[in-house]
Each structure stands twice: as C-alpha cells, then as structure tokens.
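Need residues for this backbone.
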C-alpha cells in the first residue's frame, strides 16, 4: 500500500476513515460545504483499497476503529509516505494525543469538535503541504543548506549530505523550516507551535517535544548527543547550525 499525495489541485480530495456513519456523513458534508471533496470509508482495509486506486491530499483518521485501530493505521500510512494525517478521536488524555503525533499524525482533534476549528485545521494542513508554512512565506522561498543538508521550501524536499532524499511529514518539514529560518536562536514551544500550525489552535505543548523527537531521528547522527537541535532547559529549543541561502 502506497499513500500518494498530490501537490496543488483546484479542489483538494480528502479521505475520511470513520466507522460511525452519522459522524462520517457529517464530516463529508462539512468538508464539501467548504469547497473540498471528500470520500468516506469505514476501515483500514477499505482505505487501503481506495489508496491503491486514487490519490488523496489528506486523511482524516478516527483513532477508535473496529479491527485495526487508527494508531496502527497511522503508523502504516506514515511509513508509506508523507500524506498529511489528521487524527480524530474521543480520547482526551494528553498521552493519547502525543502517541498519535509520535506515530506520524500531523494534527489531532478530539470529539466533540468545533466544526469551524476542524475546517481551519484541515485547510492549514493542506496549505502547509502545498505551499509551506506561514513563516516560510514571509521568508525567501530559496533553497537553504546546513552541514551538507539541503532544504528546498518550494518543493518541500530535504536531501542529506550523501545526496539522498529524506522523507518527512508535513509537521516535521515545517519544524525544520522554522529552525532554518531562525538558526542559533532559542525558540519556545509556543513559538514553534505557532510557526508550524499557521495560527490555528494546535495540540498540547508536549506535542512539540514529540515532533522534535521524530525530527531528530531523521537528521541527528547521534540521538544521545544531538548536535543540531539542542534542548534549552526552561527555554525551548535551539537549532545549532550555520544556515546559508543558496543562489
């Protein structure tokens, strides 16, 4: 199963994985009312069949599904590609949100949810996946390099010093982009949350720590002694790298 993501389309297509017919119908109608397309499926198995035939721009994934649960599905989707994932669940504990984010979800909304907030989050994820973060739009959209790594905000590609492309989720790329635009500066969790969620109400602050952990796994040579993303006690994080813009 390969989760494919399209770049820019006149009308984004969203896959809703929700076993509750009433909620699924409400979500599809809400999404369509805002000029987007949506298709509901009831399980991970149905999702796999659809993704093999059609590309989607975002997946809304219920965590509490019968059979294979949403957390397991999220892990599979993330290992297969970088399609944005918004998890939807009745679970309200912070640890559940953090687990979802650690498994690769880009955002997390709890039921009952405010329809306007949900739509805002959906549009923020689609905007970030297609164009980059609000922060990046205020900066030159030119390639950047640090320690042999090359980051391209326009194509949203990151290449390691050996020339291999490193796949990143929307949130991971946005986080690295925020760091590259603010090297050698202490950024609080609130600042990082704002930069990577484009002004929408984001998940709990500890979710930033989960995103940092995932990003470190992809760029740090030694996770026990990070050389790029430094933790600043009682402050936040600092990106210890010399970043240069490429011509």
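Answer:
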């Amino acid at each position: 199963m390969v989760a494919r993501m399209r770049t820019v389309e006149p009308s984004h297509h969203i896959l809703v994985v929700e076993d509750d017919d009433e909620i699924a119908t409400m979500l599809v109608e809400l999404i369509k009312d805002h000029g987007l397309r949506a298709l509901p499926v009831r399980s991970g198995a149905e999702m796999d069949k659809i993704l093999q035939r059609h590309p989607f721009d975002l997946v809304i994934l219920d965590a509490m599904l019968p059979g294979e649960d949403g957390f397991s599905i999220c892990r599979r989707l993330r290992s297969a590609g970088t399609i944005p994932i918004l998890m939807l669940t009745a679970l309200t504990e912070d640890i559940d949100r953090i687990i979802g984010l650690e498994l690769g979800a880009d955002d997390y909304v709890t039921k009952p949810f405010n329809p306007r907030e949900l739509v805002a989050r959906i549009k923020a994820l689609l905007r970030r996946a297609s164009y980059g973060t609000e922060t990046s739009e205020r900066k030159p959209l030119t390639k950047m390099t640090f320690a042999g790594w090359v980051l391209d905000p326009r194509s949203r590609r990151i290449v390691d010093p050996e020339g291999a492309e490193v796949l990143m989720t929307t949130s991971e790329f946005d986080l690295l982009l925020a760091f590259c635009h603010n090297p050698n500066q202490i950024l609080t969790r609130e600042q990082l949350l704002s930069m990577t969620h484009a002004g929408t109400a984001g998940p709990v602050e500890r979710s930033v720590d989960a995103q940092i952990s995932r990003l470190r796994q992809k760029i740090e040579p030694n996770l026990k002694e990070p050389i790029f993303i430094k933790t600043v006690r009682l402050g936040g994080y600092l990106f210890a790298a010399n970043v240069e813009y490429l011509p």
